Amino acid sequence: MSQYSNHFYKSGNQSHNLSDSGASQSINTYTISARGKADHQSVMKFLRHNFAAVPLKQVESIFGFVERSTLYGGRFYLIRQLSDRDVGLLADNGIGVRIPLTNHFATQAEFDANRPLLAKYHHPRNSIICTNDDLAYWIKQEYPDYDIEASVIKNLTKTEQIEQALSLYDTVVLPMVLNDNEALLSALPDKQRIRLFANAGCAYTCPARICYKSISKFNKGEGGEFKCSQDLKHREMQGMVDFDLQRLSDLGFHKFKLLRARVGQQTGY
User: Fold this and answer.
1) Alpha carbon distance, N-terminus to C-terminus of the chain
2) Sheet harboring 15-16: ordered strands across?
3) What residues contact residue 253 under an 8 Å CB cut-off, 6+ apart?
4) In the Cβ-directed half-sphere of 166, how many Cα atoms lie within 13 Å?
5) Are 167 and 226 spatial neighbours (Cβ–Cβ below 8 Å)?
6) 21-183-14-254 Cα dihedral, nearest 10 degrees
């Protein structure tokens, strides 16, 4: 279980002072998970309680569910996590909202149905995370103020894949395992458009990631069977893992994604 204090966060056996991470001339920024936050809980209180180690000036955005949408992916939509009041409080502090429209499947009709949501949050400080390239393209064409980010669900592990994604997306989230591939990271261009994970849960060692497509179907109301590779393929379960942010910053990366540990489980959210 991750523990957070005014100076350090812990997830596993290491402690990290996030406010001190980063090269002298560049400040690390973070997009932080609101997963597990109830709609009625103030987002500022949530940040103080769970991510007190991160100075607000380094919080770029908070990602989580707003109104219901069939385009959500990655996690089951159970409740709204960011209320209108939360969005306003974040805006008052110069912090954006990052909406995870990461469903594998998207149609033009669904895009049309989600226009009210997209119009409501259309602002340069806000972002949309996408897995489906068609959806990313449609949003960029009609809502150009959004930063459109390629989800980690796309599993871009090769340099040519990453470069191709950057021709469509403003920023790209790389799989957690690439944090260990220093040769690939060092050679990547446009490091300022790459986001790496600050910490990791079960996806770090997952050999298949079959859960995401089943969640995509559930979030469309199609039901089905939840699938997880834990029972199908062996993996080393490491619990929550913290990465060496100073090493990654020294390589030229300063955008990070920060998760929260799930109590009693070997993963984060």
Assistant:
1) 12
2) 3-4, 9-10, 15-16
3) 185, 191, 194, 196
4) 16
5) no
6) 20
CA quadruple 58, 63, 67, 71: dihedral positive or negative?
positive
pLDDT by residue (tens digit) across 106-139?
Answer: 999 999 999 999 999 999 999 999 999 999 999 9
Query: Is the whole model's pTM more than 0.70, yes or no?
Result: yes
Nearest Cα residue to 69 out of 114, 102, 31, 9: 114
- Name the token pair of 235: 């993996």
Question: Among positive and negative, which fits the CA dihedral 256, 172, 116, 216?
Answer: negative
CA distances from 11 to 2, 114, 201, 227, 268 (A): 4, 36, 10, 26, 9
Q: Which is nearest to 28 in space by CA: 169, 197, 264?
A: 197
Taking 3-state DSSP, the helix, strand and coil percentages for the chain, each rounded to the nearest 5, stand at 35, 15, 50
Predicted confidence (pLDDT) per residue in 57-79, tens digit: 999 999 999 999 999 987 667 88
Residue of 228, 227, 259, 266 whose CA lies nearest to 243: 259
Residue with tokens 């989580």: 64
C-alpha 226/C-alpha 198 separation (Å) is 27
Q: Report the amino acid identity of residue 198.
A: A
What does each C-alpha distance from 36 to 32, 135, 223, 226, 265 come to in angstroms?
A: 12, 26, 22, 19, 13
Task: Report the alpha-carbon distance of residue 193 to residue 88 in Å, rounded.
Answer: 26
Q: How far is CA 106 from CA 110, 140, 161, 166, 185, in A?
A: 6, 15, 21, 20, 31
3-state DSSP assignment of residue 248: helix
